[in-house]
Amino acid sequence: MTRPDLWPRTTDRLVLRPPTDADLDAVLAWRNHPAVTRWLLSTQVDPERYRREWLSGADDPLDHSVVAVHGGVVVGTVSLEVGDGMGQGSDSPALGSQAALGYVLDPDHHGRGYATEMVVAALDLAFGELGLRRVTAGCFADNIGSWRVMEKAGMRREQHGIRDSWHAELGWIDGYTYAVLADERR
To answer: Does residue 150 belong to any structural domain of this protein?
Structure first.
């Protein structure tokens, strides 16, 4: 079960918290917008399936997916999916030591720094209360806004994959992987 002591979290301008049904209606109003789907692996989503998956995540202790709210308006989503490092097994130390980070922002709110604020808050949670050692995130190389957010949040580019990412409209295109370690944020 999601730890209630983690939420809500506030930043300078945002409140991050688990979503309600009404929040998901707000997200679905822009989630399938072409400006959003252009940069996602899953383009169009079925609203009912999307809602079920989000709400079921509330019972998963490894899923830290929340909405970001500014002035009562849901402006984005951010998630941390906690998992093991490559090669870790049941006899390995520190199981659940890293996370994959993801975020999506309502296109009406681009260019205001909200995505960076969301990512920094997620990294603070990952390396603070969750005690993780590493967080990774990826994006299409052409998604300049996304990789700039990761760099502003202190993540470094670890990989440039040549035509390693399938894009629904463009076919195989380049992708980037970013990461940051806990001791790099001290």
So the answer is: no
Instruction: Please calculate the CA angle 144-148-151 and round it to the nearest 5 degrees.
Output: 145
pLDDT for 186: 65
Q: What CATH number is attached to the domain comprising 83?
A: 3.40.630.30
The span from the CA of 60 to the CA of 49, in Å, is 17
| Spatial CA neighbour of 181 closest among 97, 88, 63 | 97
pLDDT surpasses 80 at 82: yes
Instruction: Let me know if residue 159 belongs to a domain.
Output: no
Average pLDDT over the chain, rounded to whole?
89
| pLDDT above 80 for 22 | yes
> Rounded to whole angstroms, what are the CA distances from 5 to 55, 119, 125, 170, 178?
18, 19, 11, 43, 28
Q: Does residue 109 lie in a domain region? A: yes
Full domain range(s) for residue 21: 4-133
φ, ψ at 115 (rounded to 5°): -60, -45
